[in-house]
Design goal:
This protein has 150 residues and is of the alpha+beta class. The protein folds into two domains: 92 residues; 40 residues. The chain is built from two helices and eight strands. An eight-stranded mixed β-sheet has the order 1-6-7-8-2-3-5-4, with helices on one face. A hairpin with a 5-residue loop joins strand 6 and strand 7. The longest helix is centred in the C-terminal third of the chain and has 37 residues. It is elongated.
């Protein structure tokens, strides 16, 4: 004889500005929007180091490390048990990446919208530069073709 639980649907969590996130995909989504951050590394409540840097990559791989060096952060969500969303007294949201007495606090220095705008500007600039390079190359090839005919 088998027993079945009634078909109940539990809604997905809704976290607004504060809360604890344990789902690695949700952690990754929040971290990927970060650009420039102020970070504070603490162990057992004592500040070990702090500085500023850019979030370069966010990934989930149990074989790779989280790295913070040269003002660059490579964040592996598998390095942490959870992400705690908190707010300062000034209502600024910050993120604590927590792992057994170890905490990497990330305080955003830009908004996701500013980061997207900056990435868009960078992509546009690269596209314009590539267009100029290709155009110059075609001009040089045309010049070579024209000089061969005379």
């Amino acid at each position: 004889m088998s027993h079945h639980l009634p078909d109940t649907k539990i809604p997905a969590p809704c976290i607004i500005n504060t809360g604890i996130i344990v789902n690695k995909l949700d952690m990754r989504r929040l971290l990927e929007d970060l650009g420039r951050v102020h970070y504070i590394h603490t162990q057992k409540g004592k500040v070990v180091s702090e500085g500023q840097g850019d979030v370069m990559e966010v990934f989930a791989n149990p074989q790779r490390s989280t790295l913070v060096a040269n003002q660059a952060l490579y964040l592996n969500v598998c390095s942490f048990d959870c992400l705690e969303l908190k707010q300062s007294e000034e209502k600024q949201t910050y993120l604590d990446l927590v792992q057994e007495g170890f905490c990497l606090r990330l305080i955003p220095l830009s908004t996701p919208q500013q980061e997207r705008r900056e990435r868009s500007i960078n992509v546009t600039a690269i596209e314009a530069m590539m267009e100029q390079v290709l155009s110059a190359r075609w001009d040089a090839e045309l010049d070579d073709d024209c000089s061969d005919t005379f």
